Amino acid sequence: MELRQLRYFVAVAEELNFGRAAVRLRIAGPSLSQQIKALERDLKVQLFDRDRRSVALTQAGAALLPGARDLIHQADELRRQAQGLAVPEPVRIGYVNWRPTDLAERAAGVAQLRVDTWVMPSHAQAARVADGTLDLAICWVQNSDLEALGLDARLMGVDRLYALFAGSDETPVNAADVLVLVDADDTSWSSWNRYSEQFAADTGARAMRTDDGGVTGPTFFEHVRELRRPVLNNPKGQDAVLPKGLVRRPVLAPVPLWTWSLVWRRDEDSASVRAVVDAFTRGVGDLGVREDGTWLPADDPYRQRGERGE
User: Where is the composition biased (Basic and acidic residues) (predicted)?
Assistant: First the structure.
């Protein structure tokens, strides 16, 4: 005896018509008739009196019907309980180089979190969210990226970029007096190149191309020493330990801001992913992106609307 046979029995008992019961169960009429006969053989009782014109429950069938309904109800309830106990798939999140240190604590009680260890550039991580490899990513994106990839974004963090200088002068420097390095490898440094080229165009800072990967790290430090002028720091090296002889200088007029977005698919239907988005961005605020004297690219999702096109 199988549970599905009990469902067939109850349907026929309620319809008292094999044709209507077959339609209700979405099976073929002959298959339904065969399953009822198989159930009767297993139970060793006749459940229905039937002829070409009518179907009626036998005395045995009427006696067994309440128990069959109870068994089906218990099975359905067990299935609902099991679904409630099932462990949902973890929410997969990637990042570039910055992420809050308390991601697991923020997700606690909301969803299981799996932090992807494959650290990639911002444009690559955004694309991985779009194609479903990741559910979320913390990366730098612009409005054009969100539209092209079908993503939504919320502000997650902000870096105030500074200039590195070879010497001991730590006084602020105007943006127009800063040098910006642009890397020839646009595949790896697409986001930084877009940012720095627009920063130079908007502020009068000088942009200089390099083909040695020296927009951050030890090679970048060597460039700073050789150039003998303030060089805008890449956000990948925001918290790097500086070698001896290099200092940080604040950049003013304007202050360059680099935004970190939490991005997810616009058509995301997972309640767990949506809950993690809310948990990660609750109470974040604008993190200073509205302050006077700051700069964001024209296409940045968090730039004040009144500044667009200026």
Answer: 300-310
